[in-house]
Amino acid sequence: MAYAKTGRSLPVPNVQALAQTLNGSSGEQVPERFVRTEEVCAEEVVSGCALPIVDLGRLLDPRSSEEELANLGFACQEWGFFQLINHGMPEEVIQDAKRDIAEFFTLPLEAKKAYAQLPESGLQGYGQAFVVSETQKLDWCDRFFLILRPTESRDMRFWPAQPPSFRSSVDRYSAEATKVVWCLLRFMATEMGLEEPERLLEVFEGLPQNMRATYYPPCVEAGKVIGLSPHSDACGMTLLLHVNDVQGLQIKKDGKWVAVEPMNGALVVNIGDVLEILSNGRYISVEHRATVHQSRERISTALFQQVSPDTMLRPLPELVKGSNKARYRSVIHEDFMKHYFSTKLDGRRSHLDHYKI
Ligand code: OGA
Ligand code: NI
């Protein structure tokens, strides 16, 4: 996809290697570029507050579908995030993807660098994203980004040959996740009350999909750094897999950060900016961030469900009839993504609100 190639990020230190030197020596400080202001570090965090749970099995069962649809609507309108259970993805597919992604990050730095981002290929590969100036604060993580779909867009130079099953595991995971996404989009179209659900589904035709696996090394001064800066996702929806069970994801709810606990067997689903726009604000794309742990690494993998680059992104015409005015300006998706990748992550206002009317 063109936009993944237009995104650029300035080179920065490898955080995993940096963390190893800090953790191994006494007295070494976290470099200033990673240290956040006291205000950021002091923001209130609420724990023990569970996300809504959506049960795909109940959505698919005609006896419980209507009730569960209301549940889905509540989650998408009030939280923009939910835990998806009974998603039907084979356990083995999930375990294989987790194992191989985790194993990739254990390879020696030089082996991982064989898949490093290349100047002409934008964000694909091992490295960073959203670093646009020498002075901005940096996230305490390393990222690995791949275009998964359409399959002909895959650039196999970036697909690790180590571990040997990585490619097939990620391919199978993507195929299963795509089924889940398609199914959720259908139910969302119904929940939005669309007379023609196809109008929503056709925006996602071809189901372009990217993956970002993120490695958050432990940090001796975990409270001073941020794993992933606050942002909203620029895609349609995101499926987030906790590759290990270390907590770190936080979402903004009623002005406070809410810590999301990994839930065994569930996928975390969130609404992205594109679905917020398509739904004319009925569904919300919520600001979130990731923190790091003092002594344990954290690994997560996000699958971003995209729309094709030449899509004219705007609220669905069926939802802006009569007194319901469009709340977002129209924009070609490719331009929308260029704007997203050209700025540092700075909460959701910096991007989505740019298109608000
Ligand atoms: C992302 C993201 C959260 C996490 O990659 O966009 O929000 O917990 N990840 O790693
Ligand atoms: Ni995100």
From TrEMBL:
Family that this chain belongs to: Belongs to the iron/ascorbate-dependent oxidoreductase family.
Gene3D superfamilies the record matches: B-lactam Antibiotic, Isopenicillin N Synthase, Chain
Keywords attached to this entry: Iron, Metal-binding, Oxidoreductase
Pfam families: 2OG-FeII_Oxy, DIOX_N
Name used for this protein in its record: Fe2OG dioxygenase domain-containing protein
GO terms for MF: metal ion binding; oxidoreductase activity
InterPro entries: DIOX_N, IPNS-like_FE2OG_OXY, IPNS-like_sf, Oxoglu/Fe-dep_dioxygenase_dom, Plant_2OG-oxidoreductases
Domain Fe2OG dioxygenase residues, every copy: 207-307
Superkingdom of source: Eukaryota
